[in-house]
């Protein structure tokens, strides 16, 4: 026979399971946002994942405090050093992505030589 206490425990367990399922989806969205950002910044995402750091109230772009999840990740520029980064998730929407200071890798030279006289004439 199902008692009210058993029903309450069952519903509580279902709510916890649903929260974990929802959190997993948010983590996947955070990973996708970090991958896009790393590609745009021309750095390599290490380990191919993000790790949950904490929950908190964070100010969004409008200055309002919102409940947010913060995920951490590691990236590299040279392949020798690991650098830390973090992404803030407001529900399913990514917020700011912050990266530690890291060396800047200059884009490869195109091999094109510009003559100073031609360059000066073009600006006139």
**How many individual helices?**
2
Indicate the radius of gyration in whole angstroms. 23 Å
Low-confidence stretches: none
Beta fraction of the residues?
A: 25-35%
Number of strands: 5
Content-based structural category: alpha+beta
* Shape field: elongated
The average pLDDT value, as a whole number, equals: 87
Cα distance spanning the termini: 91 Å
Order of helices and strands: HEEEEEH
State the helical fraction: 25-40%
Largest beta-sheet details:
5 strands, antiparallel
How would you summarize this macromolecular structure in one to three sentences?
By secondary structure, the chain is an alpha+beta fold. It has helices at residues 4-41, 116-123, and strands spanning 44-45, 51-59, 65-76, 83-90, 93-99.
Characteristics of this structure?
alpha+beta, 124 residues, 37% helix, 5-stranded antiparallel beta sheet
Describe the structure.
It is built from two helices and five strands. It is of the alpha+beta class. Strands 1, 2, 3, 4 and 5 form a five-stranded antiparallel β-sheet that branches. A hairpin with a 6-residue loop joins strand 3 (65-76) and strand 4. The longest helix is centred in the first third of the chain and has 38 residues, at 4-41. The radius of gyration is 23 Å and the shape is elongated.
